[in-house]
Amino acid sequence: MSPRAHRLLSALLAAAVIAAPVAAQTTYDSADPFIGTGGEGHTFPGAVAPFGMVQVSPDTDTGCEIRDCYGHAAGYRHGDPTIQGFSQTHFSGAGHSDLGDFLLMPVAGDAVPLEPSDPAKPRSGYRSRFSHDQEVARPGYYAVSLIDHGVRAELTAGPRVGVHRYAFPAGKAAHVVLDLRSSLYNYPGKILWSSVRLRADGTITGSRETRGWAPARKLFFAIRPNVPLQGHAFLDREENIPYRGFQGPGRGREDVAQLQGRALVARLDFGKLASPLEVKVAISSVDEDAAIANLESEAGDFDAIRARTRAAWEQALGAVEIDAPAPMKRMVATALYHALLAPSIFSDADGRYRGPDDQVHRAEGFTFHSTFSLWDTFRAEHPLLLLVQPESRNLDFVKSLLASQQASPFGLLPVWQFHGRETWTMIGYHAVPVIADAYLKGLRGFDADAALDAMVRSASYGPYGGLDDYMKLGFVPIDREPEAASKTVEYAYDDWTIARMAGAMGRADIAQRFERRAGNWRNSFDAQSGFLRARKADGSFRTPFDPTAINYGSDYTEGNAWQYSWFVPQDQAAMFALLGGDAAAVAKLDRMFEFDNSKLDYSHAEDIAGLIGQYIHGNEPSHHVAYLYAYAGQPWRTQERLKQIVESQYKPTPDGLSGNDDLGQMSAWLVFTALGFYPVAPGSNEYVIGRPFVDRATLALPNGNRLLIVAEGLSDANRYVGRVALNGKPLDRAYLRHGEIMAGGELRFTMQPGPERTWGTAPAARPYSMSTARPER
């Protein structure tokens, strides 16, 4: 071909590319797992399948004595310059640290360090420097180049396995370090016992028992490389101890077949490789053989498992199709991704799992899930999953909660559970609203009577969190129980959801009893000051009183009177009446958002982040507050506050979450808010209408219907809702019913530059409150 012809062909091809239609990015394409890995988000960038049992991800620091544990709760922090290794288990966005089990790290060359080293001293151990320029993260896939070892590391995961792929430099020996000492929040004495052994077929198995956030947590592993081992060493690095292994005196040596101890590390040698090394890892809470069975339950190599997981993510994220400017689409798609990481699968391929009684159980006809951060996720995360996940998945969640209650030594539903173990972290009995909301929205397939009995038992167990006094006095007394003001109102809300479910089931005796208890919030509300306050057992309010004070273990849980005084989701109308009416409520809401914090110091409270006045978006007690203007007949003020929150609290960057994602709650808030509505009171079967932040979205609902959401004329200037139409008919109220969403069709917002002060303002147009409740349809 002549040069002129070549130039002509190139020009024609370039023109064709320019003219060709560009395929719209899917929700999968837009999701960015790096969002939240910096700042206070506490998310991880590694590979996980939807609700996967294994979350294989890089750990940039695991030693609390070296760096701040809170900031490294997910193992990875975007600002760190080195990677210690890749462990198999992680929380997404938790405010506490644990997991980081069974860390692997590839090392190239003849010398193989077995200590991670100081991050400030490159090449002093197996830790390696890395660059974000050589890092990739997609749902179900992660890759990075380890500069100090010359290794390209890739990670993927299936529902119960993680797969590592390491490309070593040509001509250099390939090794993998397995460090059983490494753990997140790894304080001295956390590792109670561990073991490792090499089986005849080359599979490496072992176990570990830890004493961390969850007590006496047992976990087993199976590791299978795709090439035979050329050699290995199992070593116990604990000092001043007698040998406890199976092979005679010594502290471990080359080719020892198995070893036990509290500080085990292994070196796995593979020689010089012509192709990348693949290492498949599975875990189990039951035993080593169960971990092997999990390993064998997912066939295929790295690429096959990655392809299946990508397909699973494309389907899961495809439940919400988004049309919005790229930054917003990226934030919302990532928020949906984060919302689909937990609760995590925890039963093995054969259905077995270790429960809260430390005994092995079998899930019959369902998949047992754990990692329930219920104080956070009852608010929006679980309501979102009812809209975007199949009924079977939500049924798994409910059955898992009930199975845990049946195995609980106290007969109680989970509070904050992971890996089958109860931590008793946070307050309330918030498995109750998760179950009630699911039942009231039509989820069936579980024993509703047994569920209601479990809910009542959890709400009646006197030794838990001051419940005995709560049942006798109608409030939790602060001189007998810490965080009493918060507990009183959270118990009252949970009680209301029990009443709602009992009423729907025809259990009138339970419904009446718990509806009375649902009004207990009044007993700690001080009408004179306008704040929720802690009472003593004699009925007096505790003094001195400072509504801005935040101290752990004081009157409130991770907050103060400003946030908790709005927590009456079951009866905002009654609370507004005690404040003096709608105008007084609106004025107080404005004071909350506009409060001058310049002289307040909350640096001692780790979870307090994302402040707008006394509104704290980085923690859950504030999450419903912006929507409360609609209860006072001023929905346009909700629209103003939502814009203020979204613009200041979310960014499409690693530091793009203002606070802990808390297993999806912070993200679920954004997904709902971007769509234009939010479940202020799960259990009411209503969603408060706010304003959309995406031009169009389509919800693929679990019943097969589709809801198209259109924001006509949406722009930065057109920030207010002028009209709302549902299937072409004007919607003059500030709420949607669950049944209307599930029926599908079209929800259309017409946006305008100024507030519409007539839409959604009438008392009959306001969202649910139990004291003003309308007959349900």
Automatic annotation (TrEMBL):
Residues 32-284 form the Glycosyl hydrolase family 92 N-terminal domain. One of its GO terms (cellular component) is cytosol. It comes from the Bacteria. One of its GO terms (molecular function) is carbohydrate binding. The keyword Hydrolase applies. Keywords: Hydrolase, Signal. Residues 291-752 form the Glycosyl hydrolase family domain. GO terms for biological process: carbohydrate metabolic process; glycoprotein catabolic process. InterPro entries: 6-hairpin_glycosidase_sf (IPR008928), GH-type_carb-bd (IPR014718), GH92_a_mannosidase_put (IPR005887), GH92_N (IPR041371), Glyco_hydro_92 (IPR012939), PNGase (IPR050883). Residues 1-24 form the signal peptide. Pfam families: Glyco_hydro_92, Glyco_hydro_92N. Residues 752-777 are annotated as: Disordered. The keyword Signal applies. This is Glycosyl hydrolase family 92. It comes from Edaphosphingomonas haloaromaticamans. The lineage of its organism: Bacteria, Pseudomonadati, Pseudomonadota, Alphaproteobacteria, Sphingomonadales.
